[in-house]
UniProtKB/TrEMBL annotation:
Keywords: Coiled coil, Cytoplasm, Membrane, SH3 domain. This is Amphiphysin. One of its GO terms (cellular component) is synaptic vesicle. The keyword Coiled coil applies. Residues 371-389 have a biased composition (Polar residues). The gene is AMPH.
Length: 467
């Protein structure tokens, strides 16, 4: 038994030495090397395909890990909602049912991704190691083939012919050629076929992923909409219970914006050092909260229903007022609409002050709240927005002024800029109106194009109604 193992070991060592010697001769140019450029290209494609498949597998596992994390985060959020939701609140049972359905959807989504995508990907990549080993074996057998061929050629070209050695060399050469041809023929067929199969595999994999994602998001969106309706009804039932910021100074009420006269342009030109903001703090009567963002401008319940898209790109960090810092001096500017005709006199630029409301004063000071720049100016000149239009669109309700830029995300929405005037008409779908959307036409387009002017949706909380 030991002699057999010793013989096999010696044979393997002899093969390695022979291959190493052949490689050295080929690199030195003393022996020619058999090459197949077409097969080498197939090998390069195989390596690329394996690398791409391995990365896809790695990213797929990371994606599933993220889905699992989102599943756990969703469950934790649902549990926290169930804990804070009082038994006597509206829709307690509905909230519990929706939460359980969301958890089940996340679990089903993750499991189907594993079954239809990850397992298929693992099966696809499982064939690469075997083919890779066979490609390496072919390379070794090619060296054996070249070595046997060179040995036979050397014996045949010798001055003294030894028929016995030549006959043995021919047998070894034929044996090496047969082994090499068997591997080579199989790989010549499998590698191109494997390379072409990658297209169908990628198509099926990503079709499964996108189909599962689409179905999951569609179903989870329905549950979220149901929860949104429950929260809306709960807010309507408790509309008298306003949200207050804990920790605010007890001697000051909610902040509001008020307008005070500002110096004209003749007194202090823009950009001059003397042009300081006219900001003061003084107690006033209770007023509405300062509009921190477009989503808070709409009057109504404590949490008004937001529109489908709530752009906030016009909000800057310096506009966020710290309610707890007594030394904070905000920089707030109010711009007037540019739609003033040539025969109108220029309006003075209003300045803004922030006033903490006091609960011990009456309601007589509510006139100090935000008023639209389109109102009547001090000199009695009426802005263009208040003039009577030559004609109004059918079903005209009222006119609004745009306070924030709005970029349309769909074809049925209007592109609006701050200062635009919009003629509001009835909304066709009650769902859009309930969600905080209005339908209208830009006044400038109506005056120019008439009935052909574009009519579309826009968020109500981005506008201010003009009386």
């Amino acid at each position: 038994m030991a002699e057999i193992k010793t013989g096999i070991f010696a044979k393997n060592v002899q093969k390695r030495l022979s291959r190493a010697q052949e490689k050295v001769l080929q690199k030195l140019g003393k022996a020619d090397e058999t090459k197949d450029e077409q097969f080498e290209q197939c090998v390069q494609n195989f390596k690329r395909q394996e690398t791409e498949g391995s990365r896809l597998q790695r990213e797929m596992k990371a994606y599933l890990t993220a889905v699992k994390g989102m599943q756990q985060a969703s469950m934790n959020l649902t549990e926290s909602l169930h804990e804070v939701y009082e038994p006597d609140w509206y829709g307690k049972d509905d909230v519990m049912t929706i939460g359980k359905s969301c958890d089940a959807l996340w679990e089903d989504f993750h499991q189907k991704l594993v079954d239809s995508s990850l397992i298929t990907l693992d099966t696809y990549l499982a064939q690469f190691p075997d083919i890779k080993n066979r490609v390496a074996k072919r390379s070794r057998k090619l060296i054996d083939y070249d070595s046997a061929r060179h040995h036979l050629e050397t014996l045949q070209a010798g001055t003294i012919r030894n028929e016995r050695k030549i006959s043995k060399a021919e047998e070894e050469f034929q044996k090496a050629q047969k082994v090499f041809d068997e591997l080579n023929v199989d790989l010549q067929e499998e590698l191109p076929s494997l390379w072409e199969s990658r297209v169908g595999f990628y198509v099926n994999t990503f079709k499964n992923i996108t189909n599962l994602e689409s179905k999951f998001h569609r179903e989870i969106a329905m549950l979220c909409h149901k929860l949104y309706e429950v929260m809306t009804k709960l807010g309507e039932q408790h509309s008298d219970k306003m949200f207050t910021i804990q920790g605010a100074p007890s001697d000051s009420g909610p902040l509001r914006l008020a307008r005070t006269p500002s110096p004209t342009e003749d007194e202090s030109p823009p950009g001059s050092p003397e042009a300081a903001p006219n900001h003061t703090l003084r107690p006033t009567s209770p007023g509405p909260p300062r509009p921190k963002s477009p989503s808070q401008l709409k009057k109504g319940p404590p949490v008004p229903p937001p529109p489908k898209v709530t752009p906030t790109k016009e909000l800057h960090q310096e506009q966020i007022i710290n309610l707890f810092d007594d030394n904070f001096v905000p920089e707030i500017s109010v711009t007037v609409p540019a739609q003033v005709s040539a025969n109108h006199l220029p309006m003075p630029i209003p300045s803004v002050v922030i006033e903490p409301a006091s609960s011990n004063e009456g309601d007589d000071d509510r006139d100090g709240d935000i008023t639209s720049p389109s109102g009547v100016s001090d000199n009695g000149v009426t802005p263009e927005s208040q003039t009577t239009a030559p004609g109004l669109p059918p079903g005209f309700l009222y006119k609004v002024e745009v306070l924030h830029d709005f970029e349309a995300a769909n074809s049925d929405e209007l592109d609006l800029k701050r200062g635009d005037l919009v003629l509001v008409v009835p909304t066709e779908l009650a769902e859009d109106q309930d969600a905080g959307w209005l339908t209208g036409l830009k006044e400038a387009d109506w005056l120019q194009q008439g009935s052909s002017a574009q009519k579309g949706l826009f968020p109500e909380n981005f506008t201010q109604r003009l009386e």
